[in-house]
Design a protein that fits this description.
67 residues, alpha+beta, OB fold (Dihydrolipoamide Acetyltransferase, E2P), 4 strands, 42% strand
């Protein structure tokens, strides 16, 4: 498993864009040092799921192999 940390940079309607964290805390600087830069852009149609994302808030994203 690989864990990354992203910040919600944009949320409008069902569109959500997350960007990899690069600063703001010691933990963020460690994530930036060891994980690549990137973005995740999604369309989230489920209203309950949309409510989970707030601009400016940070989220962990875990990547595991789907078998």
């Amino acid at each position: 498993m690989v864990r990354a940390k992203f910040k919600c940079a944009f949320k409008e309607g069902n569109s959500v864009r997350l960007e990899a964290v690069i600063s703001g805390s010691e933990e963020n600087e460690q994530f930036w040092k060891y994980t690549p830069f990137g973005q995740i852009q999604m369309s989230v149609d489920n209203e309950k799921a949309q409510e989970q994302f707030e601009e400016g808030k940070e989220y962990y994203v875990d990547f595991t192999l789907a078998e």
